[in-house]
Amino acid sequence: MTDVLFTVRGRLGRITLNRPRAINALNHGMLRRIADALTAWEHDERIRAVLIDGAGERGLCAGGDIRSIYDDVSSGGTTALDFWVDEYRLNARISHYPKPYVALMDGLVMGGGVGVSSHGSVRVVTERSLVAMPEVAIGLVPDVGGTYLLSRMPGRSGTHVALTTARISGADAIHHGLADHYVPSDRLGALAAALGSGDDRDPVDVVRSFAEPPPASALAAQASWIDHCYAARTVEEILDRLNDHGGPAAAAAKEIAKRSPTALKVTLRALRSAAELPSLEAVLDQEYRVSSACLHSHDLAEGIRAQVVDKDRNPRWSPATLAEVGDDLVASFFAPLGAGELGLAAAPAHGVTADGVTA
């Protein structure tokens, strides 16, 4: 079975992630083929818009294929770095794609799934959408431009989502800047057909014609305690405020306490740094440094083992407590990589080289 499908109907180029049993998790080959298709369609005058969706009923994409990352880490390899290089470059490419890039974010959209959708120009969610950046649960830190998106959500909501690994609804995603349009799931087929028809309207107008007002955001309704608690300086102080507040805040503290202490502290610093960085590319460069450090850390392999391999849900983090995670350890995740830097922020704008060829 082909793990990603490419079709052209009328003036629409369609990308369908086609690993439904794995909730369309991304592997390296898929990333490369998507990048190649985007290049071809960018220069094809017959194509006026691109659409990405996922096969099956469970979701657009559950993220990257973390089992392959575990195998790589366990063998002492570095193929995960090559995967991230191409993935992050694709994320930046999508954010600057010159034609409407329509992402159907139906069902589960996590991690790498956010990377291939929420950087697009036309982002569609449904009543079934559940959007999350759950990396700290496996000893990783939000990447694929996730810290860029999370750090720019209203108030401190992005910090809450990152540290708790909360899954937010389509309505939440729209309110917090991760999506644009709310379309009932039973209308997605008709929407895709309309985009591929001979309709002369702008593709964005076609999407708007299928959209309806989203429900109220449940996450936005909790902004008062979220903004207060997550404004604290450290993870320890955030937990103190959450527990003191009680109710849903205390429940959030309980979820945070399960996560990798190192990943929590590195994530908080990454989010606050990302908020000050000038572009998605600069944030992706930072995320690559952090992900590279995670690859050589204890907690990434242990987190994947506990969640995906042995599935005992009992990770043995090291260091085991927040108190043991010092500032020097956190800083080491942000250390420059020298010749190994991703270097997106220093590249020509929109991924185009000096000779005019798309990178």
Q: CATH homologous superfamily name?
A: 2-enoyl-CoA Hydratase, Chain A, domain 1
CATH class: Alpha Beta
**Helices and strands: which structural class?**
alpha/beta
CATH architecture: Alpha-Beta Complex
EC number: 3.1.2.4
Pfam families: ECH_2
InterPro entries: ClpP/crotonase-like_dom_sf (IPR029045), ECH_dom (IPR045004), HIBYL-CoA-H (IPR032259)
Keywords: Hydrolase
Can you characterise this structure?
A 6-stranded mixed beta sheet has the order 1-2-3-5-7-10, sandwiched between helices. The protein has a 4-stranded mixed beta sheet with strand order 4-6-8-9. It has a single domain, classed as 2-enoyl-CoA Hydratase, Chain A, domain 1 (Alpha-Beta Complex), CATH 3.90.226. It has helices at 28-42, 66-74, 79-95, 112-115, 146-151, 157-164, 170-175, 188-195, 203-210, 223-229, 235-245, 248-256, 261-274, 280-295, 298-309, 327-332; strands at residues 4-9, 12-17, 49-54, 59-61, 101-105, 108-110, 122-125, 130-132, 168-169, 181-182. It contains 16 helices and 10 strands. Helix 1 (28-42) links the parallel strand 2 and strand 3 (49-54). It has 359 residues and is α/β, with parallel strands linked by helices. It is 43% helix and 11% strand.
